[in-house]
Design goal:
The protein has about 850 residues and is mainly α. A hairpin with a 6-residue loop joins strand 8 and strand 9 (about 840).
Length: about 850
Amino acid sequence: RRDHAVPISRAAQRAQRRRQRQQESRKSHRRLHYLLRYIATSASTLLPLSSLPSLTIAIMNRKSSIKPRKKLTIKPYTMAPPIDHFATSSSLLIEAARAILHKRSLHKVSQDVNAPSGATADPVSVTDLCTSREELYKLVESLCQAKHGKELFEKVNAEIIHAAKFVLAKMETTQLSDLLTLYEEFSQYIFYIRNIFLALDRSEKKNIYDIGKNHFRELVIQQNLFQSVVIPNLFQSIKALRIEYSLRLLEQTDFVVEGQQSDFDVKNGVQMVRDLGFYDELEELFVEESRTFYLKEGSSLFEGDKLQTLPKYIEIAQKLLNYNHSLVGKYFNSGSTKLKIKYALEECLVKRFMGRILGTNVADYSSGANQFYALLDKSDQTLHTLYNLFSKINAKDELYNAVTLWGKARGEAFVSESNPIPSLLSLHKKLCNITEIIQNKGIIKIVLETVLNEGGGNKVPQALAKQFDETLRGKNTTATAKSTDALDALFVLFTFIVNKDTFGMHYRSLLGRRLLKEDSESLDVERSVLSKLKGECGAHYTSKLEGMYNDIELSADLGVHYAEYCKNTQAGGVVEFEPKILTTGYWQQPPQHDLHLPQSLLDHMKHYNDYYTTKYKGRRVVWQHSLGQIVIKAMFPVKNSDSKPKIYQFALSQLMGLILYQFNPVDDEESPRELTLPMLMAATNIPEDEVIRCLLSLSKSKDKQQRVLLHNKNDTSTPRDRKNPITPEDTFTVNTSYKSNKMRVKIPMMSSKMEHNAKLAEEEEQISEAIMRDRNHAIDAAIVRLLKTRKVIKHHALLAELMSSGVLKFSFQPQDVKKRIESLIEREYIERDSNDRNTYKYLA
């Protein structure tokens, strides 16, 4: 049993090689033995086998003395030809060439030696000499070997000139087809001649085919056939093809084009021109003719009798360029001609009308006459075609500038609207589509940065903050996915705003309202917006916003602990009390009112104040009643006294709830209470304008049954208007017949448009003052931080550093920086250099 290979020793390997050599030696001797035996048998000499080894040795010894066999060489016949061999042979060849010209058979040709070589073709006598093209070729070869090539070439050249004249003499009309027929006949003739005289062609090193074409070309020039026959017919045919295609584009299919040559004649005519060496002249004339034709055609399409709209013109121009590209490739088949025609047509159809196509005059847009702006509004396939056309003429920059002007014009019109954000979002979407087509995303940044920050850039940030507020409210959003997409689009606009501090101030004010009224769609969505703002502007920008979220979360935790505290200390009462802690630096502070509150609320406020000051030492609690919300449980009697009263829950502001609370019966009064404006002001200590707003909100409704209070106008002599809707003599009572389909009714605070605008103006003024105050602090901090690092800096370097660093999230002017420098000098943060007033030093 062998499980693995056994290694062989070196001695065994040597023995194995020796046996192989012996076997090969025996085989070679055996083959030699058979060979010698065969030789001996064929020589009829039978040798005994015993003599074979000696014979083998003798042959091997004489092998080196055997001489190689000589090669067989066949030499040409050296007999001299006859004396008249050249004359006879050349005459025969010339007669054969004439027979080819006259399309006679080569098998019987005459040998009229006395006929001159340049004479006209006369009827020849037929002899019994039979020949063929092969014999003629051998005859030419023998003449060339006999050194008669030069004389024979002269005779052949004269015969070719005669043939060219003979062929062109048949030209009877000025049609291109006739000239092409004659040229085809001559080309066939010269082809046969070259095949017969190929040996002459090689010996004299002259191309007979080219020489024949040159003779034909010279005759065409002498007879002016190129200018009078070729060019007019070719151009007329190509012009007819172009007119037919243009009419087909204009949907005029019933028009008949006259003077059109066949497609075959046009293609062969261009090939004939190329063969004869006229192609450069033809190309130059063709390019000039194409330029003239399409200058006229473009003018008629853009502003003439064939006037088209801009999208239609762009479509036609692109199709005309494509058609001429295929036409030149089909008939001319030349790369240089394609490029020249391409450049000429692009100049005539596109570059010439570039200013009118782009319509860079912004005033045309307002009048509706600028078709280019209408094209950008659609941003369809036509714009892609226009981009391709402008790319071909290297006019992308002009197109980019026109699109930029369009975007700025549209943006300026949108910014002037009351709520420009929806229009700006649509503009951004269109810019994305347009820049994707024209492959330049930088236009979006140029346009939006100019539009959003024009005129100081305060209107758009404020409107954008309001749009964020509307999107984040739960009542205006039906689906989280839709709100997320809308927020992403709004955040794109935010990235292009320079005055981000203005946006931040308004966003903080609106965020406070949403958090206090619990009107947000989702705190997770709010947090995602906060994280994006933090990533864009930094942690310092969102520090107050994060503090507001933390206050809401802390208030919820404190509410749970306060409920346990009330349970353990027997504090509170039947009224549910949920206070929210607002840090002073994070929230905007509204005006405070010292109200006359019910005892139940005062008790809760006292207990919560004790709880909070005990939990957090050194803090002071200030109650903001104007921001509070309250839910009042109201019971209204029904007509049937035996039935239970109808119970509703009114969700309203704390001021409105305090006024409505005054209408509760006192000391078991059965009749509803009637209160006037002065009585309510005295009972609640609320300002007059706020009491009027609350009364209007409670007594004004489209449905009279849903009015909580009834307004009794006792003083009819005093005129009523928006400024004076309620007089001191008017009384208000509870509507005992109140009805509503909802158990929980939300009553918003009502205000007139004038009051609303006045309130908004006041808020805007407060926010503007806060923005300017924050900007001054930001500029001061940036200057001090920079001087603390540099110690000494010049004024221009300071301005350049502030503008390039990006620390300030708003736009500013050099005058603003100068004012803050003067303020810092007065407060002794920095000082001027005594030798150079433009140099500032940091004071440690």
